[in-house]
Design goal:
219 residues; alpha+beta; 6-stranded mixed β-sheet; 8 helices; 35% helix
């Protein structure tokens, strides 16, 4: 499948209708507060690669979260190279990392320096956010994701226990946080600091993923 960059309102509508997974469409990931406030479009240069990367993010990570915890909120996700550069250089305080850091992350339509495809979304899991507001540790959710899903990176934030969740080819799982306790929970290539039984005790009362399977993405 090859998709041209949208050049009209109607073609952008069609692009937004592309179904990425059981629960998500491309339009779910195109909203940008920076783009909205400053009047900057957020349209991929390479829609085909963006779709392929988005399908993997949604089918491997976001759909299982929805099927387990219920609806999730997408806070920030796809950024075009131009929009990300604007957020990194023109918006103060700086809201985006430089483009090269975001390739195969928030910039879905660029491969990283190793040639890997990837995609990232900053999400909130409302079921967990309610518990986090009452004092629950963000690491409970981090270790659940680590033990159940094939991800590349997670980065947690203090508000609502929102976190960047990245899928990437040939992943090197890593977890870090701006929320207390801050810092690196898992560095790429390291063994988890908590044994599996200890991790499982953290999320013993989480909903059960069970035997959920996912239908193929409609063509």
């Amino acid at each position: 499948m090859t998709t041209r960059k949208p050049r009209s309102y109607s073609s952008l509508e069609d692009f937004g209708r592309v179904r990425l997974s059981q629960h998500f469409y491309m339009r779910d990931f195109l909203y940008s507060e920076i783009g909205n406030f400053f009047g900057k479009p957020n349209i991929p240069d390479d829609p085909t690669l963006a779709i392929l990367a988005g399908e993997q993010l949604c089918q491997n990570l976001l759909d299982p979260l929805v099927n387990t915890f219920g609806p999730i909120a997408v806070r920030s996700s796809y950024r075009s190279p131009d929009l990300n550069h604007f957020g990194a250089t023109e918006v103060k305080p700086q809201r985006c990392s430089r483009n090269e850091v975001n390739y195969a992350s928030h910039i879905w339509d660029r491969r990283d320096s190793a040639g890997r495809m990837g995609a990232c979304a900053c999400i909130v899991v409302p079921w967990f956010a309610d518990q986090y507001a009452k004092g629950r540790d963000w690491r409970d959710l981090a270790w659940w994701v680590h033990d159940h899903l094939t991800y590349h990176a997670m980065y947690f934030f203090p508000k609502l226990a929102a976190f960047n969740l990245t899928w990437r080819e040939d992943p090197a799982p890593q977890i870090a946080s701006y929320a207390a306790p801050k810092g690196n929970l898992l560095r790429a290539g390291d063994t988890p600091s908590e044994v599996r039984a200890t991790r499982q005790a953290r999320y013993a009362n989480f909903p059960d993923l069970g035997g959920i399977t996912y239908p193929p993405v409609p063509s």
